[in-house]
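How it folds:
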Amino acid sequence: MKTVMIVAGESSGEWYGSMLTKELKRMWPEIRVVGIGGERMRDAGVEILSGISSGLGITELLPSLRRIRESFRAAAKALSDLKPDVVVLIDYPDFNFRLGRVAKKKGLRVLYYVSPQVWAWRKRRVKTMGEITDRVAAILPFEEEIYRKAGIPCEFVGHPALEEIEDYEAETAAEASPVPGPDSALKIALLPGSRPNELKALLPLFAGLVKVSGRDLPGARFFTPLAPNIEAESFREDIEALKKEGVTFSRGDALRCLAFSDAAVIASGTATLQAALLGVPSVVVYKVSALTYYLARAVLKVRHISLVNIIAGKEVVREMIQHGAHPEAVLEELTRIVVDKPYREKMVASMEEVRKSFSGRRPSRRVAGMIAELTGWALPEIAASTEH
């Protein structure tokens, strides 16, 4: 039986893993897919060996260490027991680099899908990538050249965010807004990220923002989609405080909420790119512990933290970090987006340029094709003529 293992450690990674799984099962209905992931991968048909558990930074990582060790043991055991035809590692480098070494020692083929951000920090990891992978499927346009210069087989396959958006736009054009209230009301999405430390830092910021918003944005409606892997009970007080301010919550509905929003406030991460691809003007916010912030400033080699700005090579959306991320400052930028039409139009035009750099590609289909190339599997007729 054809067997593929997919390993994702965070919400965005398991989202990509679920899309890849659906494509694999469309091409080879009998295929067995196992892995580390969450609800979306399970719903797509993955046999989950262990759930995702991730942290960011030093103080944020420590509470997750036990679960991470358990996940690693489960994955390493599956490599020995199942001997998958291909191991697909999705981002999550500290975990997946170790697992990749185990897989290569066992003579297994490894495809790295979603490159670690070697261009941002710890550039020596490029060498490690060459040691643990057979091929790299990059989702950002400038990453391909980095690996090719290092002699590592790499292909820019496009970004799954645009793949999902194009499917959504084709299937749900007439869908009703997920936010209650009059259609004419200003709708603002508040996306706090998917990591526990992000919610801990940003939900209080959002509460403060909504409280002062009536001064400059009267009648605005706010909504917050929570990632599927978030344990909402851990943030019950913050969520209840936001609900009392009139914020509408949903689960696993980020794309739909963004598509119906007039503006958004977003934690730095994949959602910033989603908003850009949808043409939704945004403010990017981020807060971490003081220690993590200090260390990050020392090692990061990029001018921007949000994907849309990094890809564009300029500031498309404002970034507010640490003490700069406070309710008054965020409200001021949101108000400018709403009131200053030329400012808004310039931002949307830059976002359209970012979307063009990804258009015409279907990453899940192409990565499935790369798996076929590594294994020698014949592509079914449904995929052979439309691989990209």
